[in-house]
Amino acid sequence: ATLSISTQSASRWRTIVQRLIDLGGAKGVHVGILSGATNADGQSIAEYAAANEFGAPGIPSRPFMRTTAREKGKDWAQLFAQITKGKLASDPAVAKRALTAIGRVAKSDIQATIMSNMQPPNSPEYAASKKKKHGGYDGTLFLSGDMHKAIDFEVVDGTGVPVA
To answer: Is 153's pLDDT higher than 90?
Structure first.
């Protein structure tokens, strides 16, 4: 369950994208629950993150990643443009720096959305149970903190392989 923010998704930055392609190296950033993330019980965090993102029987959809991307995507694109403008030809490492910066900001933005108590609210029964069992917090999307902690990012090449 990750968002892929790619240099190729910014159509108005075609010149920048072409320079990145020509230079090789970092081409995008994956942000979200990365492959292999598990909770203390060994359960895949991506499974319950997807159930929350898209909904499942008994779980309403609370699209924390899609909502964050829709609300913050322009900010991320502006950050990319601000960091890379005029620097790609002279410094091939600038793409990795820009994508790393976007990854850090997007990670923080998604974590903030998780903590925002997204609608719809929990059922009254579940909220009461959650409040009793988990120190008084009955908001949505946060129970153990595993999903919040598992949000991360990785800068990738054109084939999706992480860049060192």
So the answer is: yes
Question: Quick check: 7 and 28 in contact, CB under 8 A?
Answer: yes
pTM, rounded to two decimals: 0.80
Select from 102, 26, 24, 116 the least CA-distant residue to 67: 116
DSSP assignment, residue 44?
Answer: B
- pLDDT confidence band for 13 (50 / 70 / 90): very low
What is the Rg, in whole angstroms, of the alpha carbon atoms belonging to the chain? Answer: 18
Peptide bond into 120 cis (omega under 30): yes
CB atoms within 10 A of CB 98: 26
Q: What is the DSSP secondary-structure string of 151-162?
A: EEEEEE-TTSPB
Cβ neighbours of residue 21 closer than 8 Å, sequence gap 6 or more = 27, 158
